[in-house]
Write a structure and sequence with these properties.
Blueprint lengths: L10 H8 L8 H24 L8 H38 L5 H39 L5 H26 L5 H27 L4
Length: about 210
């Protein structure tokens, strides 16, 4: 019987799988869940903003953001399953190539680790591009839900940071100078995006 997608399971079922001895789901799926939760919480703040007459000037933007966060939430839920599948494929590949000639083994290993990086890379990139929306919601959204906006932003940051860790772990096994240089620049851009919203949280948001 085919297993249900992670988002189709109960919270207990997913956490039982996460806490089991199986290597997947693991940190990648957990990062995806952080991303989905961040988007759902931000979406809630958007609805609370849109329905409050005191934020009339932000209603249209809140409505736009709600739709954006809803779509992103679905993306992160799908990426949870994709990450687990890619990790299991990586383990399978590493076992199957042991008897191959060195050059062929290195070639297959390179492809496998690049595939393993693809999902955390997409998670970090997607969430980094959403951070300006989280920031705007912090500053202009319904202030009665400010704690929710902060928790959404913190979860978004955690998703990016966890994804960066997953990228870096797999990068250790990739011998491709151009790819490494490109990825390091990309990681720096994610870290800069996190620093920007963290500065807002530290200096512009008051509980």
């Amino acid at each position: 019987m085919e297993k249900k997608a992670f988002h189709e399971r109960t919270i207990d079922e997913f956490l039982d799988d996460l806490g089991s001895g199986s290597p997947a789901p693991g940190g990648g799926a957990a990062a995806g869940l952080l991303g989905a939760q961040a988007c759902a919480l931000a979406e809630m703040v958007c609805h609370l903003t849109e329905s409050n007459k005191n934020y009339a000037e932000f209603h249209e933007k809140a409505k736009e953001y709600a739709s954006l966060f809803n779509m992103a939430r679905s993306i992160f839920l799908d990426l949870m399953d994709e990450d687990a599948a890619n990790f299991l494929d990586l383990m399978k590949t590493l076992r199957s190539i042991r008897s191959l000639p060195l050059e062929k083994r290195q070639e297959e290993q390179l492809k496998a680790f690049k595939k393993a990086i693809a999902v955390p890379q997409q998670m970090a990139q997607t969430m980094s591009e959403l951070l300006p929306s989280f920031t705007n919601l912090l500053l202009k959204g319904n202030q009665n839900a400010l704690s929710d906006s902060i928790m959404a932003a913190q979860s978004a940051i955690a998703c990016i940071q966890a994804s960066i860790i997953n990228v870096k772990i797999n990068m250790k096994y990739i011998d491709d100078e151009f790819y490494e240089h490109e990825m390091k620049d990309t990681i720096t851009s994610w870290e800069n995006a996190v620093s920007a919203i963290d500065a807002v949280l530290t200096y512009q948001v008051n509980l």
